[in-house]
Structure formats: C-alpha cells, structure tokens
Amino acid sequence: KFRVGFRHLSFSSIPAAAVRSWRVFNMFEFIKAVYRLLVGTTKYAYLQRTKKVGHLSDRPTVTLSEGKVCGISVNLPNGKQYHSFQGIPYARAPVGKLRFAPPVPVEKFDLEVVDCARECEPCTQVDLYFRWRIIGEEGPLCLNVYTPTLPSDQNTNPQFPVMVYIHGGGFESGSGSTFLHDPIHLLQEDVIVVLMNYRLGPLGFLSFPEMGIAGNAGLKDQLLALKWVKRNIAQFGGDPNNVTLFGQSAGSWSVYLHYLSLNSRQYFNRAICQSGVVCT
Fold it and tell me: Where is the Carboxylesterase type B domain (predicted)?
C-alpha cells in the first residue's frame, strides 16, 4: 500500500519471496561491484609500476630453447627491482585440429625476439562477473615469469627456488593474470614465480571418446607448462630441481592430481594445496 509521502511508503503488499529475491539479486550486484573495484584498483596499480617499457634493446632479454624473449624491469613497493616476462607462449594455439587435443609445444618462435612486456589474453571462458559475456581467445597458451635477478645481471649465477602457481575458477574461469595474482610479496623473498594459463570449460575438459576427444586437455596444458619450466627456468636464474607447485581452489585440485600422477611428479619437488584436494 502506498500513502502520500515517501516517509509512509509501505511494501507490505509485496510477496515475501519477491523481497528475498530482490535482496539476493542486490547482494550479487554488490559483490560484482566490489570485485570490479578491486580488479580495477589492482590493474591501475600494476600499470603504474609497468608503464615505462622502453625499447627492446634496453630491456632484459633471455635466450630460451625456442628463441629470445624480452621482458621489462619493475620496482617493488620496497624499492627492490625484479624482471617481468609476460605472455611467453609455451604451446601452439589450440585451434582447428588442435582443438580438444593435447597441447603441442612451441618449438621455435616466429619472431627473432618475442616482446613479453604485456600479458596475453586469457583462455576462452564465460566471464561470470561481467554480465556473463564470452571473453578471452583461443590463442597460444602462455605463461608469465617473474625473477629477482637474471644470470646476465653482473655475471651472476643465481639458483633461486621456483614457485609455479595454478589459478582457480572451477576449471571454467580465471587466468594466470598478474591483476588477480600479483606476485610482488613472494618476489620480496628472492624466489621466481611462474603463472600459467590453461584451457577451461568444454575447451579444456570435454571428454568424448567416441569422437576422439580424450578429455582433460586443461590438465595436459598444465603438465606441458611444468615441462617448459623444467627446461627453461635456469635461464631466468631459477633452480629446476627446486620447484614448488601450488594452487588455489580448482588450481589446488590440479596440484593434487599432478602430485598423484607419475607423469607429473618428476617436474616439481613439493606441492601446496590451498582450498581443495581430490577425495575418493
């Protein structure tokens, strides 16, 4: 019933179920707004740290088995510097005949020097926080490497421990983006941090043996990334025999599955499961 004046506005005639639905809807909208604010703030702070890119010849360069990658140098909040290499392709784009198939490693880069100043797009997924739209692309599978010191810095030969992170998101969303998983706190402890992208949703976990789709392509992407780390991380100053694999939520499930798999165990030395393990 509505009376004259907003002070006497009454919603007693609205069904209780409708009121509850309205409250749930507005709570969801509030959570989305807070998420957008946090992501936007984090993204702005990161861009402020990395806005000065410079010419390729003036930036840190690493020679890998696939070719050369060029990163950037970034300052931590405490003034310490680290080197960032983002968007390094470790597998060919899973399109055409490679869609749903096991990942195919990149043998040689197409460019003489790959510019790794910016992250690649996330793998194709439904954005659960921004109006359920499709985001990402089926491009080359990429990873990011962050290191305190390179072997080329002052002719040093560092052997930093390595931490490889697998992101969560229910195996259907998320990415190894620095905006969501900024490694600055870990980098203050003299470790190398690796973040990876892997295929998600039906593109990563569809199983259809009758059509030749074996399934779990996303887990196979993760394994290929671990092989890449084993082969190349020494060029970034890391110790390939001191690798810790860790993850959160679906990433934690992934870590546990790799821990159980004899195919994966040889590529890391310890594991950290944050929120979730496989139960039988």
Answer: 59-278
